[in-house]
Each structure stands twice: as structure tokens, then as C-alpha cells.
Design goal:
By secondary structure, this protein is α/β, with parallel strands linked by helices. Helices cover 39% and strands 15% of the residues. It folds into 2 domains: 3-252, Type I PLP-dependent aspartate aminotransferase-like (Major domain) (Aspartate Aminotransferase, domain 2, 3-Layer(aba) Sandwich), CATH 3.40.640; 254-384, Aspartate Aminotransferase, domain 1. Bound molecules: pyridoxal-5'-phosphate. The site of pyridoxal-5'-phosphate has 12 residues, from helix 4.
Length: 386
């Protein structure tokens, strides 16, 4: 499907709402029925229509159609946050005694899900580095039901071979799921590689303005229907119609934002790579990435997120560099219009910081829509202070 059609027309039926160009926010909790028969039909199969907005809603429906089409998927479910789009499908598809294989450095709350939450339900997880296919083959047991990927992850940008992992999983009757928030469907299409479920934090690029929380999972309708009729409806982490509307607005400009952000980030990366006070810039398309060929095969571009390691990577230097930046906002998240900085050392106590630990010394940088020269000048003055 043409991306312009998806973003401008798909799912929109303007005659239904006074020929308004922008879709309405259907701000209602419930929907009325004229006959008991109609009501009975809706209650019997909530996946087919609008009954109650914890399930579906017309504003949400427009968004679901567009998000499914962007991923080349049969259907999409949207959630109140990205982590709900990870947690709810996983809970819905696993049961006591099942095992999961998960890559070792996914998003922090995803680690928590597999390490702390699932064991409460008797579901265990084997964490693997994920870069070597033999690791998957060795970790599979007769109880393995899910392989969970995050490629690239969003601090060290490790990539996994999506097509090969999907093949291994299929040969063993195992489901695959990926967090594709880093790439969005514009830069990586996991379903085309055979992955079953694709989750994204819509809070990031899809929304694009740092003003909403949301999540999406796409895949085969039968799988999504199972998720919907169980944990989705029970946990109730659905998206509010107002947020769906903001997301629809964000989607209109997704391609041009991603394009500009990627272009800006490439310029900033080139500057940082040549700076003597920067020891390393980590991102999937870095010449130093051992999996560069795989990253280029699977992904179109990298967007605005990467990490750096300072040449003098002790705590004082890292803190000074981050504290004196003027135009970067120190904050979690990414994917908006604004450039951000997140030193990994902020997530650990000073006493635990180990300058020889590769993950402790990372400074994650997100480049937004500001002009690259403006951002580079800021980096220049911050680097001059260390
Ligand atoms: C890679 C990744 N996946 C999932 C999430 C969770 O998304 P949300 O914050 O929208 O719940 C995040 C949040 O930062 C993330 O970075």
C-alpha cells in the first residue's frame, strides 16, 4: 500500500462526519443499540464493532487501520502505553510452565516483565545476547513458546537477524515478537521477515511531539483477537480517543520528521566521530558495528538515537558534559521534536558506577528537529568544558 494513501486516506470516511477533513474525537465510553438482537450480537463478539471504548472506538479504528497497514500486518491493537503493548500480548499468549527466550538488553521495563513479573505466573525466561543464531538454537526447549527481540535496542543498538530467527522459531513452532520502536515501520518491516508480532511505543516517533503516551502491536488477526478477548479487555490499558487523535495527527508528518531527524543525526554523528574527546559513537550504521551488514540489510535508516562514549569516561567528565549542555534536555524517552541527553550513569548510584563497565559509560543522545549547526555548537561548548 502506498504510504501517502495510508497516512492521508486509509480508514477515513469523511462523509460519516460532516465532511470534516480532520477526523473527530469520538469521546464516548459506550455505544447505543436499537434492538436487543443488535445488542446481543455486539456483546457476543466485541472484536467486530463498537460496544464500549475499553475495547474499540471509531477514532481508535482509524488509527488501527493505518498502523496495521504501515507494518504490512492484518490488524493492529492500540494501548495506553508502549509497555502495555509489550506486556499484555506476552501475558495473553503464555501460560504457566511456558518458557521465553529474550535478548539480553531490551527496554528496562521489558526486562522487568521477563525477570520479575512472568516468574510470578510460573513462566521463565532465558536471556541470550542474540547476535549469534546458535544461541537461539541452544536455548530452545520443548517448553519454549516465545522468542522476544528488540532490534536495535535503544542504548547499545545491538541488532538481531530477524529473518533467520523467524525461520528458527517457525521450525520449532515458537512465536516471535519484536519491539520495533527504534525503527518504526518506515525503517524496518519485521513482518516481511516473518516475525509474528510487532510492538512499538507510539509515545516515541509515531506521536512525535512528546505530548502523548501510546503503544501498538500488529500481527495476524487471529493472534490479536486472542489478545483482545483476554488480557487486553481484562487489564484495560486501552488508548483514550483523544490520544488516538493526537497520534493520527502525528502520523501525518511521520515520514518528513523521520527524514529530517535522520539527516540531522547523521551530521551530528559525523561531527562527534571526528572529535578527539569522543572515543566512540554507537549506532547500528556505525562502521565499528560488527553487525553493520546485517543492520543495513534489515533497516533503511537509523533515525535520531545513538550513544557516545567520552574519551575520558569517568563519572565527573560524563556529568560535567551533560550538565553544561544548553539545548539538549536531560530526560528519558525520545522520538519527539527536541534533542535529549540521557547518561546511563543517571540510572545507577554513584557508588555502583564502574568506568570499565561498557554500559555504565554510555551517554545516549537523541537528535530532534533543531538545525544540526545549533546542536553541534552546543556539543562543542560542552566538550570544551571537559
Ligand atoms: C524501546 C522501548 N520500548 C518500549 C518502551 C515503553 O514505551 P512507553 O514509555 O510508551 O510505555 C520504551 C520507553 O521508553 C522504549 O524505549
Amino acid at each position: 500500500m502506498d504510504i501517502s494513501y495510508i497516512l492521508n486516506e486509509l480508514g477515513e470516511d469523511r462523509e460519516q462526519y460532516y465532511n470534516a477533513v480532520a477526523p473527530p474525537i469520538i469521546q464516548t465510553s459506550n455505544f447505543k443499540f436499537n434492538t436487543v438482537d443488535d445488542f446481543r450480537g455486539a456483546l457476543a463478539d466485541e472484536y467486530q464493532g463498537n460496544l464500549y471504548s475499553r475495547g474499540f472506538n471509531p477514532t481508535i479504528d482509524i488509527l488501527r487501520k493505518k498502523l496495521a497497514a504501515l507494518d504490512g500486518a492484518e490488524d493492529a491493537l492500540v494501548f495506553g502505553s508502549g509497555i502495555a503493548a509489550v506486556t499484555i500480548p506476552v501475558l495473553a499468549l503464555l501460560k504457566t510452565g511456558d518458557e521465553v527466550i529474550c535478548v539480553e538488553n531490551p527496554y528496562s521495563w521489558t526486562i522487568k516483565l521477563f525477570k520479575d513479573l512472568l516468574p510470578k505466573y510460573g513462566i521463565t525466561t532465558t536471556f541470550i545476547n542474540g547476535c549469534n543464531l546458535n544461541e537461539y538454537k541452544n536455548a530452545i526447549t520443548s517448553k519454549t513458546k516465545l522468542i522476544y527481540l528488540e532490534s536495535p535496542n535503544t542504548f547499545s543498538f545491538d541488532v538481531q537477524d530477524l529473518a533467520s530467527v523467524a525461520d528458527i522459531a517457525k521450525a520449532n513452532g515458537i512465536l516471535t515478537m519484536i519491539d520495533n520502536s527504534y525503527c518504526t515501520p518506515l525503517y524496518q518491516q519485521p513482518i516481511a521477515y516473518g516475525i509474528d508480532l510487532v510492538a512499538q511505543s507510539a509515545t516515541k516517533y509515531l506521536g512525535g511531539h512528546s505530548d502523548l503516551m501510546g503503544g501498538v502491536v500488529t500481527g495476524k488477526r487471529a493472534l490479536l483477537e486472542k489478545i483482545f478477548n483476554n488480557e487486553y479487555m481484562n487489564i484495560g490499558a486501552s488508548m483514550a480517543p483523544q490520544n488516538a487523535w493526537l497520534l493520527l495527527r502525528g502520523l501525518r508528518t511521520l515520514p518528513i520528521r523521520m527524514e529530517k531527524i535522520s539527516e540531522n543525526a547523521e551530521k551530528v554523528i559525523a561531527y562527534l566521530e571526528s572529535h578527539p574527546k569522543v572515543a566512540q559513537v554507537l549506532h547500528p550504521f556505525s562502521e565499528r558495528n560488527a553487525d553493520l551488514a546485517l543492520a543495513k540489510k534489515q533497516m533503511k535508516k537509523c533515525g535520531g538515537l545513538f550513544s557516545i562514549v567520552l574519551a575520558a569516561a569517568d563519572l565527573n567528565e560524563i556529568e560535567t558534559f551533560c550538565n553544561v549542555l544548553k539545548h539538549f534536555i536531560m530526560a528519558v524517552s525520545w522520538g519527539g521534536y527536541e534533542s535529549l541527553v540521557f547518561p546511563a550513569c543517571a540510572a545507577i548510584s554513584k557508588a555502583d558506577f564502574d568506568r570499565n563497565n561498557k554500559r555504565h559509560v554510555l551517554i545516549r543522545i537523541y537528535i530532534g528537529l533543531e538545525e544540526p549547526d545549533y546542536i553541534i555548537k552546543d556539543l562543542e561548548q560542552a566538550l570544551s568544558k571537559i
